[in-house]
Amino acid sequence: MRYGFWLPVFGGWLRNVENEQMPVSFDYVKQVAIQAEALGYDTTLIAELYLNDMKGMHADTLEAWTTAAALASVTERLEIMTAVRPGFHNPAVTAKMVANLDQISGGRFTLNRVC
């Protein structure tokens, strides 16, 4: 069995809790990913959402692709999965981004296609 988690790119995932004490920052998600890897988690999903639909459209959110590349450089075993919405991306550019992330991560990058 493998275990994964959604990275808290919104500062948490609960709609009914205004402040989950999870800052929307790379430093925070880096700590979460490193700790999850140390605890034995296998994968993380980084949601590609351009607006923070959990906390409101004016709230901060981390961008999935650059966050994935940065996390690949600070983790060793954790599989990094980014959700992609094909309608927002040129297929050739997306393929190049995926190939580059797979190289940066040493083969630990996975793509999750969302319709």
Could you outline the blueprint of secondary structure elements for this entry?
Elements: E1 4-6, H1 26-39, E2 43-46, H2 64-74, E3 79-84, H3 91-104, E4 109-113
Parallel strand pairs: 1-2, 2-3, 3-4
Helix pairs in contact: 1-2
- The structure class reads alpha/beta
H/E element sequence: EHEHEHE
Strand arrangement, largest sheet? 1-2-3-4
Q: Calculate the terminal CA-CA distance, rounded to whole Å.
A: 27 Å
Shape from CA axes? globular
Keywords:
single chain; 115 residues; alpha/beta; 4 strands; globular
Short structural description:
This protein has 115 residues and is an alpha/beta fold. It is 34% helix and 16% strand.
Describe the overall structure:
The chain has helices spanning 26-39, 64-74, 91-104; strands at 4-6, 43-46, 79-84, 109-113. It has 115 residues and is of the alpha/beta class. The protein has one domain. The longest helix has 14 residues, at 26-39. The two termini are 27 Å apart.
